[in-house]
Write a structure and sequence with these properties.
This is Alginate biosynthesis protein Alg44. It is found in: Cell envelope. Keywords: Coiled coil, Membrane, Transmembrane, Transmembrane helix. Its main location: other. This protein is an alpha+beta fold. It has 3 domains: 143 residues, Thrombin, subunit H (Beta Barrel); 121 residues, Beta Barrel (Elongation Factor Tu (Ef-tu), domain 3), CATH 2.40.30; 146 residues, Orthogonal Bundle (Helix Hairpins), CATH 1.10.287. It is 40% helix and 25% strand. It contains 7 helices and 26 strands. It has a 7-stranded antiparallel beta sheet. Strand 1 and strand 2 form a beta hairpin. The chain is flat, with a radius of gyration of 56 Å.
Length: 533
């Protein structure tokens, strides 16, 4: 065997047993005390065993590494046989498919102590008696029965624990609801207010409107119109007539200029085609003249043609070349003019006494821009004394009366959007007592109930600030005023103001609708506040 070998003699009923240690190789020391493993009613002798497992000889029991089995580990003692149930896994096997080394698993503490007692008794050299071994077995059995009994009664303990926990939680919730709940002193639905002001000075004419009434987008709210506005409107209309006359003239001039350029462009194309054909004919004539000149040259050499005739032919050839050069210049000039027309700057001779289309179009664009400005001014003057509803709104307040003389910028109506797509700006403003308000944090959920509904809803705290009734105007980040809080609070009263984002299920509330808000603070927040964490 590998490792050190140490002999220990143990006298048991007159026999000598030898213990062979494998120190450092296994968790439990194995001994060669005779033992057998019983599997499916068949006994297989072990070579050695320990509290952790056993080994058997090759070609005894078929098995592969990882196979799991169960059986009984048996010992033949002087006064009888003792066995204990075990479950084991094959950890080492031979090449022929037989188990060599096995390891116990799921061995309960009682059976483990039984095997350990046999090992300890064997190592100390004492006699292994059936009574000592069975006593451990009886204890293990009693332990198993006690565990089973506790497992059978666990639901009773769980029920008692659940009832106790429920009572504790209920008591804590009652304490929390009574002591840790902060209720609002004043709260209402709020939304940014749109102020409708007078656009000029004059006498106000109101329709039959009342606060809280719903008006449709584009509905006429009031009228403020003066003689001054009538004079300005007449002046702008006269200016508009003059601009329209100039525009009509320039449009006619632009059409004539474009027609003149179009005719000139057509004439250039015809001329280009004519010169191109004439050039082609001259090029053909030049080829013929050059052939005749070559014949004259050969005739001079033979003496059949005089030199004067040859030179006259040469002069004709040069004349044709000069004409070709002149035509090339003509073609280049025509193509240049066509390019000018293409980019919108035609030559002067294409326009005659008219301005170019580019010049006329520029003047026309300036007049059209000026006309748009005058039309915008006329439209503004037409509606200067008329105020229309900018959206589907609720009338929050009416700040002027019918027949009142108003100035430019005077606030007449305060409106709050009511259409579904604009309700995202709606919120709830709540005045909370200063005591305990430091425990209210941004992002914490709060419970609220609308005056028009009985069910409770959950909102989220979006903003927390100090509030004094002596300065009761509230604005959002865009500088728009927020409505909803009462205007008759004692001026020396101080509160904590919280802004609450409403629940997504809150779809029916209107601006200024009263609300009851309750903020419940958790124990965690209390402890953090106490210890300044």
């Amino acid at each position: 065997m590998s490792g050190g070998i140490m002999g220990v003699a143990a006298i048991s009923t007159g026999s000598i047993h030898t213990f062979q240690s494998r120190s450092g190789a296994r968790k439990f020391p194995r001994i060669e005390f005779a033992a057998q493993i019983e599997i499916d009613g068949i006994l297989y002798p072990t070579k050695e065993w320990s509290v952790g497992g056993f080994s058997i000889g090759d070609d005894k029991y078929p098995g592969r590494k990882g196979d799991k089995h169960h059986g009984n580990l048996c010992f033949d003692l002087p006064v009888g046989r003792f066995s204990t149930p075990v479950q084991f896994e094959v950890m080492r096997a031979s090449e022929h498919g037989y188990a060599l080394g096995c390891q116990f698993y799921s061995l309960n503490s009682g059976h483990q102590k039984t095997l350990q007692s046999i090992v300890d008794t064997y190592l100390t050299g004492e006699t292994i008696s059936l009574e000592s071994v069975t006593s451990y077995g009886v204890k293990a059995q009693l332990h198993e029965e006690e565990v089973k009994r506790m497992q059978q009664n666990w639901w009773r303990f769980a029920l008692v624990a659940l009832v106790s926990l429920t009572l504790i939680v209920t008591a804590a919730l009652m304490i929390q609801s009574r002591i840790l709940s902060i209720a609002s002193e004043h709260a209402a639905v709020s939304q940014p207010v749109l102020t409708q002001r007078s656009y000029n000075n004059g006498v106000l004419r109101l329709g039959d409107y009342k606060p809280g009434q719903l008006v449709k987008k584009g509905e006429l709210l009031f009228t403020v119109f003066t003689d001054e506005g009538t004079d300005l409107l007449a002046k702008d209309k006269q200016l508009l007539n003059g601009i329209n006359s100039q525009i009509n003239y320039l449009q006619t001039l632009l059409r004539q200029s474009k027609e003149s350029v179009a005719r000139y462009n057509s004439r250039l194309f015809n001329e280009l085609q004519l010169v191109t054909e004439k050039k082609q004919l001259l090029e053909d004539e030049l080829v013929t003249r050059e052939r005749i000149l070559a014949l004259y040259t050969n005739g001079v050499k033979r003496g059949t043609v005089d030199e004067v005739s040859r030179e006259l032919e040469r002069v004709e050839t040069f004349e044709i070349k000069r004409q070709l050069l002149t035509m090339d210049n003509q073609l280049e000039d025509i193509e240049h003019k066509l390019d000018q027309i293409l980019i919108g700057v035609p030559p002067r001779e294409a326009q005659g006494d008219l301005n170019s289309p580019f010049e006329v179009q520029s003047k026309l664009d300036i007049l059209i821009t000026k006309k748009d400005q005058v039309l915008e001014e006329i439209e503004r003057l037409k509606t200067r004394g008329l105020a229309y509803a900018p959206c589907d709104c609720y009338i929050v307040t009416i700040n002027a009366s019918d027949g009142q003389v108003v100035q430019t910028g005077t606030s007449v109506f305060e409106l709050s959007p009511a259409s579904q797509q604009n309700r995202t700006a709606r919120s709830i403003l709540a005045l909370m007592p200063l005591e305990g308000a430091e425990l209210i944090k941004i992002g914490m959920p709060v419970e609220y109930r609308l005056a028009s509904r009985d069910d409770k809803l959950i909102g989220i705290v979006d903003h927390v600030q100090y509030y004094s009734a002596s300065n009761s105007d509230i604005y959002n980040e865009e500088g728009e005023s927020l409505s909803g809080l009462p205007k008759t609070l004692p001026r020396l009263q101080q509160y904590s103001l919280i802004k609450i984002l409403p629940s997504e299920f809150d779809r029916d509330s209107i601006v200024n609708e009263p609300v009851t808000v309750v903020a419940t603070v958790g124990w965690k927040d209390i402890f953090k506040h106490w210890f300044n964490l």
